[in-house]
Design brief:
The protein has 487 residues and is an all-alpha fold. It has a single domain, classed as Amino acid/polyamine transporter I (Up-down Bundle), CATH 1.20.1740.10. It has 16 helices and 2 strands. It has helices at 9-17, 29-40, 43-57, 61-85, 92-99, 102-137, 168-183, 185-210, 234-245, 265-294, 305-313, 319-352, 371-387, 393-418, 433-448, 451-475, and strands spanning 153-155, 161-163. The chain has a two-stranded antiparallel sheet with strand order 1-2. Helix 4 packs antiparallel against helix 10 (265-294), helix 5 (92-99) runs antiparallel to helix 6 (102-137) and helix 14 (393-418) crosses helix 16.
Length: 487
């Protein structure tokens, strides 16, 4: 059988609605928007904005926000069409299976592990660092050996250093969120909604108060002249800034993984995807304008640019530093929740197709969640959280997500050609222009991330190929007689 054999939309939908592999539809449009915002607004906003301003775009980092948002919007329109046509779990994996074939679907499914599972591990490590920092401001110090992995040295309050053993707080948050996801999607959505309200309030407080301390002189020059090196200011700096900031936009695609749990996916999925993107883009641009207006952009290249801005422009608001830390912790919490939710739903679909073991699609009889999948991913993510240091996985996650966006945009175009008369409750406008722009735009941001991240992506995909041909190819339900529409 061809590597590019596909499954029909009707067959995928009928599979999702029958048998014991059935998820509970409980999410409305508000829940879906909250899931998107929960995944998008994380610490990337509070840290990467300053780095992109100081090293790439200057005050024009707000334009970098817009460039990144346009790439996301082009992909978001394509995700919306697919999520209405194929309202099942699996996101880009399922969409690729119906248009580009099983092999490409596997590549995307494996690629999403890079975004969701590995990404959630990285976020949990950062979550731990901020919790430890916030507790320290209140005079609570955790044992140094248990707040970092064995490859990290921890600096103690007296100036000495100690070698870490395991990052216990990171493991605890992954365990708690995994347990919440096992209990139920409705409970998870409610918890996420509360967290979203808190972190939106933190962003709005900073923007509202900081707006009064903007010095317009800090906007000159708005687009600093290029230094002669690609990506260091000028127009290329705006593009590289967009590639850097893109990590702060990652997550809206996770909304599509919940399509099989939406009450009315044909109507609600586009609202959830486009709505969460629109809200976050407005907040991101306002945040960037305030941050670069408060202090000169060259002073923002620190690990905590918001703290730098507060200390220099409005030192009387010292309490806001702790508020921002709390907002970042809330942001990390909801990002971990949505990432682990998305990963379990992608593997749920892959398991239903036979490409990964059936344990990943085992539904709990009471909670109606893929609880074994959540449990297994806890044991997969926890060792990374406990023992590995925080590294450059952020860029790896960005390039993996952009790759998935490119495939989804191509998939919409292919589906319009192969199956033009299929019911489409939501249609991506101006096809093939929008998909082509989405491919080019997101590929340009991939290019800007540099060859080292391309190399890591290729190595990751090669590992996935070994697993596919060793297990997935031989256990594929499609290969064993499932319905196909093309070869």
């Amino acid at each position: 059988m061809s590597l590019f054999a596909t499954k029909s939309v009707a067959h995928i939908i009928s599979e999702s609605e029958g048998g014991k592999h059935h998820l509970k539809r409980t999410l409305g449009p508000g829940n879906l928007i909250a899931l998107g915002i929960g995944a998008i607004i994380g610490a990337g906003l509070f840290s990467l904005t300053g780095v992109a301003a100081a090293q790439n775009a200057g005050p024009a980092v707000a334009l970098s926000m817009v460039v990144a948002a346009i790439g996301c919007a082009l992909a978001g329109l394509c995700y919306s069409e697919f999520s209405c046509m194929i309202p099942v779990a699996g996101s880009a994996y399922t969409y690729a299976y119906t248009t580009l074939g099983e092999w490409i679907a596997w590549i995307i499914g494996w690629d999403l592990v890079l975004e969701y599972a590995v990404g959630s591990s990285t976020v949990s490590i950062s979550w731990s660092a901020y919790v430890v920092s916030l507790l320290h401001t209140f005079g609570i110090s955790l044992p140094a050996q248990f707040i970092a992995g064995p490859f990290e040295a921890v600096k103690l309050p007296d100036g000495t250093t100690a070698q870490g053993i395991a990052n216990i707080p990171a493991v605890i948050i992954v365990g708690l969120i995994s347990m919440l996801l096992m209990i139920g999607i409705k409970e998870s959505a409610r918890t996420n909604a509360v967290i979203v309200v808190i972190k939106l309030a933190v962003v709005l407080v900073f923007v509202g108060i900081g707006w009064m301390y903007i010095n317009k002189a800090n906007y000159t020059p708005y687009i600093p002249a290029n230094t002669g090196e690609f990506g260091h200011f000028g127009l290329s700096g705006i593009m590289m800034g967009a590639g850097t900031i893109f990590f702060a936009y990652i997550g809206f695609d996770a909304v599509s993984t919940a399509a099989q749990e939406a009450k009315n996916p044909q109507k609600d999925m586009p609202i959830g995807i486009i709505g969460s993107l629109a809200v976050c883009t407005v907040l991101y641009v306002a945040f960037a304008l305030v941050l670069t207006g408060m202090v000169p952009y060259l002073e923002l290249g620190t690990a905590a640019p918001v703290a730098t801005a507060i200390d220099k422009a409005m030192p009387q608001y010292v309490w806001m530093n702790n508020l921002v830390k709390f907002g970042i912790i809330c942001g990390f919490t909801s990002v971990i929740l949505v990432m682990l939710l998305g990963q379990s739903r992608v593997f749920y679909s892959m398991s239903r197709d036979g490409l990964v073991p059936p344990v990943f699609s085992d539904i709990h009889p009471k909670f109606q969640t893929p609880w074994r999948s959540n449990l297994l991913f806890f044991f997969f993510v926890a060792p990374f959280s406990a023992f590995l240091p925080l590294s450059i996985v952020g860029h790896m996650t960005s390039i993996g997500t952009l790759f998935a966006f490119v495939i989804v945009c191509a998939g919409v175009w292919v589906m319009r050609v192969k199956n033009p008369n299929a019911p489409r409750p939501f249609k991506t406008p101006l096809v093939p222009l929008v998909p082509i722009l989405g491919i080019v735009w997101n590929f340009a941001m991939m290019y800007s991330l540099g060859w080292s991240n391309w190399l890591r992506l290729i190595v990751w995909l090669v590992i996935g190929q070994a697993i596919y041909f060793a297990y997935g190819r031989t256990h594929s339900h499609l290969r064993q007689g499932g319905k196909t529409v093309s070869r």
